[in-house]
């Protein structure tokens, strides 16, 4: 016998919910516990599961429809079974003879054959009345907006009662510019060709300030935030090629040559910029560079992103160094404080998914490093637990100076700051 899966009531005083996902179609077989749909209202979203095994024999709603709560979302029964006509076609004697057609503010009609509703539907708001959703937004819409660095309060809502729903956020994401200049700041003024510092995954440009103060060069010292980080949090670039494009576009605005100093992911970006042909890279200093092998500590990436307390974050960040005592508590607290910025962790998660897959790096810059003929130094720690030294050694060509540091992990600029600043200054000066 056919059984109905009802539209859940996702709010105590709500009478309707929008169908935002359908995971089945007519004739599909389902079993108990299968996810069959997702519906949402201005207050919540809800995943609908099948509570019995069978075949989908009735599916009166489609994605985008506004369904009536506690009415059948679909029927599950035996193959070939037909839903009784009384359940779908014959109106209740106390109802009007012709069912009303309900429209959302975006004028999307519901199915032509829904089960009759117990009370007349309220008059829909006109399209012109759709306004910014403000606090009225479904949780799934809020999550998607945060993932893309968008303010939910600036998105026009077309859901029930003007709420911002998933479709509205998707449209805002599509309309938002993915490019734009990255955050680029001068950390120290000077004369001549600027030295530009590019941080690694999970950091930001402020992490370079202690090192810059010790280098002693008379050149301008600048640093930028990678997409998804710091002041570039809202930039839409996610995969490696897009990161390189974004950094290249920003540095071209300097209208001249640059010396590049990069750490980890930032080092890989710096190396990749040398083979584009549209940027005059005078020298390269690569610190614990990613992109020279396949391996990365995927557990660290996941743990770092999921940590929400100082204790948890410190536990993961200790993997970055050889001696845990060298990890200053202020560095952990600064990293944790930066996470108060709404959307930062989702933005970095988006970048992580674009450049890493589990414990694998999805990019390689070894060819770019082999082709580069300017002054180049690579600094790597023998105790690096994030990017293995053996893979860096195998990829660094003979014409590049490789400095292997004992008792140093993935942060040579922290654990061996004096040596690192000396190498940077020497490499920059060797470019003439």
TrEMBL record:
Coiled coil: none annotated. Signal peptide: none annotated. Residues 136-173 form the Peripheral subunit-binding (PSBD) domain. Pfam families: Abhydrolase_6, Biotin_lipoyl, E3_binding. The keyword Nucleotide-binding does not apply. Its cofactor is (R)-lipoate. PROSITE patterns: BIOTINYL_LIPOYL (PS50968), LIPOYL (PS00189), PSBD (PS51826). It comes from the Bacteria. InterPro entries: 2-oxoA_DH_lipoyl-BS, 2-oxoacid_DH_E2_comp, AB_hydrolase_1, AB_hydrolase_fold, Biotin_lipoyl, E3-bd_dom_sf, PSBD, Single_hybrid_motif. GO terms for molecular function: hydrolase activity. Residues 2-77 form the Lipoyl-binding domain. Keywords: Acyltransferase, Hydrolase, Lipoyl, Transferase. Forms a 24-polypeptide structural core with octahedral symmetry. Belongs to the 2-oxoacid dehydrogenase family. This is Alpha/beta fold hydrolase. It comes from Paragemmobacter amnigenus. The lineage of its organism: Bacteria, Pseudomonadati, Pseudomonadota, Alphaproteobacteria, Rhodobacterales.
